[in-house]
Amino acid sequence: MSSSSSVPDEVEVDPEVSRLKSQLRQSEDLRRQAEENMRRAAELGKGLLEQLQASKAEVERLSQERHEAQNRLDAKCSMEKAW
Fold it and tell me: Which of 27, 26, 22, 23 has its CA nearest to residue 10?
């Protein structure tokens, strides 16, 4: 009296079932790798976005500083011309 539930998973009667299980394991491994790659890409993207935002803020600060320095220089030149 043979029942399919009495056959251990490791011993497959049908080679097609064995092949499909192997493909499933490979697919699951690839899925896990893809998920890990997406997680790492998201982390890297977040870091790059933060760096970009910091760089933009620094460019804005330097632009403002340059503008203020130009205004001081213009004022000084105007004062010297007035003398």
Answer: 22
Domain residues of the chain, as ranges?
14-82
13-19 long-range contacts (CB < 8 A, ≥24 apart) are none
Helix, strand, coil percent values for the chain (each to nearest 5):
85, 0, 15
| Tens digits of pLDDT across the chain (83 residues) | 444 555 555 555 699 999 999 999 999 999 999 999 999 999 999 999 999 999 999 999 999 999 999 999 999 999 888 87
pTM surpassing 0.70?
Answer: no
Q: Which token pair is 32?
A: 């896990």
